[in-house]
Design goal:
Largest sheet: 3 strands, antiparallel
Number of strands: 6
Bound molecules: zinc ion
Order of helices and strands: EEEHEEEH
Strand order of the largest sheet: 1-2-3
Number of helices: 2
Strand content: 15-25%
Distance between the termini: 26 Å
Length: about 100
């Protein structure tokens, strides 16, 4: 939703962070604190959530027994489930693709 951000002092795209349920300005990445709870609740009901770019890859997690997003582990040796943090069953080719993407960002 386009709203006035009290940090940039401009009209910017604002989305709700799923974890903290706070409105975040996409221009400065800060929490917008000048919004009424009515606006915030409207955005939540419209599912105007901040989508994390890193969750572009999704795999079947053997631990959760569901498909979840996967991120490279800190040592970049395996792909970790974004929900449970356990190692996911990902092919070596996929792992190297993710390493390449990781370098670019
Ligand atoms: Zn801002
Ligand atoms: Zn999992």
């Amino acid at each position: 939703m386009l709203l006035h951000c009290n940090h940039c002092n401009t009209t910017a795209e604002v989305k709700i962070d799923r974890k903290t349920e706070t409105p975040i300005c996409l221009t400065c990445n800060k929490e917008v604190t000048n919004l009424s709870s009515f606006i915030v609740n409207t955005m939540k009901s419209q599912k105007d959530f901040l989508e994390k770019k890193k969750e572009a890859f999704a795999f079947h997690c053997d631990t959760c027994k569901e498909v979840h997003g996967g991120n490279l582990s800190a040592n970049k040796q395996y792909v970790a489930c974004t929900i449970c943090g356990k190692k996911m069953n990902v092919s070596a080719h996929m792992l190297s693709t993710m390493k390449m993407m990781d370098k670019k960002s």
